[in-house]
């Protein structure tokens, strides 16, 4: 079950223009994230999140995670102030027409001092940044698992908006759900 913890880092951001999951090969069984998965964002200027999150993890027969990815639909962005989400989707910020998705693709997982962390590539607006994200995995009923991650990104790393447009520090809170048993 510890291997399932790797799943937690399926948390974030886009690679190119892909709206759907890539055709990358996972060994073992691929478990998709459910529609209940969500990504919430917060800064000193806004609160919101993304309602359309897709992803999957691969787990082999030895319960080892063999791969994972997460794709977020930028057009599913919602923010706390009317009109703000539409502006954030414009070319001034996310440029959702040109870059409709955000991806995080995990490449390595580690467990130390009762904390899991996934390292991978986060891509938004065609800019890829290596990230290590701590996460927790919780067993739920009927073979379901919940992956929670709380971390910070800096929007200027991805050239999302002008440096002084809004707060640069954005807190990310994820809740990803996968069913590992039929």
Give an overview of the whole structure:
By secondary structure, the protein is mainly beta. Helix content is 3%, strand content 49%. The protein is built from one helix and eleven strands; from the N terminus they run ββββββαβββββ. A hairpin with a 2-residue loop joins strand 7 and strand 8 (115-124). The relative contact order is 0.26. Residues 1-25 have low confidence and may be disordered.
Task: Report a brief summary of the structure.
By secondary structure, the chain is mainly beta. The chain is built from one helix and eleven strands. An eleven-stranded antiparallel beta sheet has the order 1-4-5-7-8-9-10-11-2-3-6.
Essential attributes:
182 residues; mainly beta; 49% strand; globular
Strand order of the largest sheet: 1-4-5-7-8-9-10-11-2-3-6
Low-confidence segments: 1-25
Distance from first to last alpha carbon = 16 Å
Described by strand count, sense and barrel closure, the largest sheet is: 11 strands, antiparallel
Helix content: under 10%
Q: List the helices and strands in order.
A: EEEEEEHEEEEE
> Globular, elongated, flat, extended or rod-shaped: what is the shape?
globular
Total of helices? 1
> In percent terms, what proportion of residues is strand?
over 45%
Q: How many DSSP-defined strands?
A: 11
Radius of gyration: 16 Å
Please tell me the overall pLDDT.
Answer: 80
Going by helix content, strand content and strand pairing, the class is: mainly beta
Topology:
Elements: E1 29-32, E2 38-42, E3 47-50, E4 53-59, E5 65-73, E6 77-79, H1 84-89, E7 101-112, E8 115-124, E9 127-139, E10 144-154, E11 169-179
Antiparallel strand pairs: 1-4, 2-3, 2-11, 3-6, 4-5, 5-7, 7-8, 8-9, 9-10, 10-11
């Amino acid at each position: 079950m510890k291997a399932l913890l790797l799943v937690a880092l399926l948390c974030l951001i886009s690679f190119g223009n892909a709206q759907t999951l890539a055709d990358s090969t996972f060994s073992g069984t691929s478990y998709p994230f459910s529609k209940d998965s969500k990504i919430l964002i917060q800064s000193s200027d806004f609160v919101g999140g993304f309602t359309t999150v897709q992803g999957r993890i691969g787990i082999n027969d030895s319960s080892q995670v063999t791969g994972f990815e997460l794709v977020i639909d930028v057009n599913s962005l919602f923010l706390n102030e009317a009109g703000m989400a539409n502006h954030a989707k414009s070319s001034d910020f996310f440029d959702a027409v040109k870059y409709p998705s955000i991806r995080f693709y995990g490449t390595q997982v580690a467990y130390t001092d009762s904390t899991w962390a996934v390292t991978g590539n986060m891509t938004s607006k065609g800019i890829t940044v290596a990230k290590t994200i701590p996460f927790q995995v919780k067993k739920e009923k009927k073979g379901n698992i919940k992956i929670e991650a709380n971390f910070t990104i800096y929007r200027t790393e991805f050239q999302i908006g002008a440096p002084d447009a809004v707060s640069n520090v954005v807190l990310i809170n994820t809740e990803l759900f996968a069913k590992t048993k039929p």
